[in-house]
Request: fold
Amino acid sequence: MPKKAKGTADKARQKKPKELTPLDRLKLEIAQELGLSEKIARAGWAELTAAESGRLGGILNRRLKELQCVIGPKGTLIPRV
Reply:
């Protein structure tokens, strides 16, 4: 079996940047307000503590109520009727 070119395997492993949904943008905005954006960029969402995640989720919930929106499919924000 022939060997692949050296750069081919690396390109296959690279993830395509995910397009941000309105919900993702709102979460990032709140994370920035809380001073967590650097930690998220460096280590990812999974590295947040329970307290940090809870605070972010609480503010997100309050913000959604203020905007009178609910979370729809694929992170869309749908106005309440």
Summary: The radius of gyration is 18 Å. The chain has four helices and two strands. The mean pLDDT is 87.
